[in-house]
Amino acid sequence: MGIPNNIKESHLLQAIEKINEIGVDSLRASTKFELYYKGRKYPPKEVIRYANVAANGTELRDFSGGDESNNYLINSGFTIVLKNTDKIIGLDYTKKKARGINHIIGTLNEMKREEVKGKDKISMGQAAQRNGERAMDHWHDKNIILYGPPGTGKTYNTVKYAVAIIEKKAMEDIEEEVMKDGYEQIKKRYDEYKEKKRVQFTTFHQSYGYEEFIEGIKPVISEEKEGEIYYTLEPGVFKDFCDTASRDKVISIGDEKFLNPTVWKVSLEGAGDNPTKRECFENGHIRIGWDHLDEKIEYDTPITESDSVKRILLDFQEKMEIGDIVVSLRSKESIDGIGIITGEYEYDQSYSHYRRKRNVRWLVKNINVNILDLNGNKNLTLSSVYRLNRITITDLKPIIEKYSGENFGSVKEPQQEDNYVFIIDEINRGNISKIFGELITLIENQKRLGMTEEITTTLPYSQKKFGVPSNVYIVGTMNTADRSIALLDTALRRRFRFVEMLPNASVLDGVMVEEIDIKSMLEKMNERIEVLYDREHMIGHGYFTELKQEPTLKKLAHIFENSIIPLLQEYFYEDYQKIQLILGDLNKENEYKFVRETEVNRDLFGHVFGMDIDNLDLTYKVNTAAFTNAESYKKIYNS
């Protein structure tokens, strides 16, 4: 029995809705193919079976899978992929594969189904197949790890992935841009996105923990009472990034619009009523002191005051942004003003004191509002400036409305949700359980905020609900020479798509250094390493790319002496015979060898018997003269 031709697109969509209700796991799994739709995957035959219920009232069971089901779905504008991969297939995949034709194309992207609908001159099946031939530009896996040996361009490629994700383009499009306009153009856009806080980069290491990544309580030295320490709650880099991404909306206050405001507390000449505060309220700004220090403090500016003073000044200068919210301290429990920062940092010498200034539009002032509960029952301190991590603009909205009467209710969502990319370099070097904690589940595609299986958790320190926004993408890198994927934390491994990055010697095509073919040399060394060790410890092409700009023997010698030989010594634990095999030294004359062997002088130890030195025949030494001898390199691949 074939598939009834009265099953329409609307029936297929109803089937997908039904499957979402009952759960994909309860269905009979497909062995080879999956239907991809809005970030989820479904067994193609099960979708058609339930679509028949919607169309004809009965379940359809006796029909063929494979090409019959796949072709029907493709012709209806859906995407079919090979199971457990991101490879899109075209029409008649099984039949064509049997003839040896590989029709796996592109990286997985949801079909632009609206475009398919609008094509009058071509059939829906032709449109779907055409779209399948190039990855669509608005879908990427939420969690990706680029893994491979050192020097294969993992960190280099995170730049391209980040730009592709943010601009909602296929990687093929970005690669074409690199070929046409150069990597520098992509890097320039990446830097711009980083400046706009759309990209965050961090590196994991053994001491990296939950407090740095999610949130933690950190000690701060009081500026008022010398030697006294108090503790503040600080968001980690990932939580802070997620907060920014989830606040991806324009907040309107009257005629002004502000994006993602941070809430700051400022002490205007301390607490309570005072002349400086009255002047600030009247003239629309905030002012702080330390007038005896430089007008502009840099991160490396030496000051005699404590580090907390430098942090305050840098926060006021560098971290506060136009559009952020500022509240004025009245007492340890209350505030007396709320405003929007409207100006950049200034040093105003017209004042006799408190010369560091920013312009502010005061929304409400001369009030007395207790915000202890909003601040997690934590007292405010006299410290001049610090961020109120527990309080958001949404928390302050009722106060502003009550005391100002201004229309604060307008919150305009962007027409299209912006993507954010969080890059984790050396992700395998951190203790994943310690760093992610309970968030390891929340990063799954379907557990993200706004998804069908959305999950939030209560954070242990702030007691705030937290979830990972669906527009946050995580791109990690992993050096396989440090740690095999097989040894990677299981919880992490099953939540990421792994993209292998192997040495690409073709990047070095045409690179010649005094008739040394760099591409051939690298290929030969890697062939030998794969046999003697494994593919995860091959040498990356990145070590040699500098030779494209500086193709000199001096540069090549520097690379070998400072990178390649030490890397091989690390790989083979100074098993110099294997290193000699990699470098072809066993087939070279002595003067061309990178590693020379020398017979042991037994007289060196006198007449000693029954010791291990009886079996010590040879010692090995790196021949530094070989680094500047072109023949030493040629004989690596010609020996």
Automatic annotation (TrEMBL):
One of its GO terms (molecular function) is ATP binding. This is Restriction endonuclease. Residues 412-496 form the ATPase dynein-related AAA domain. The lineage of its organism: Bacteria, Bacillati, Bacillota, Bacilli, Bacillales. The keyword Transit peptide does not apply. SUPFAM superfamilies: P-loop containing nucleoside triphosphate hydrolases. Keywords: Endonuclease, Hydrolase, Nuclease. It holds the Pfam family AAA_5.
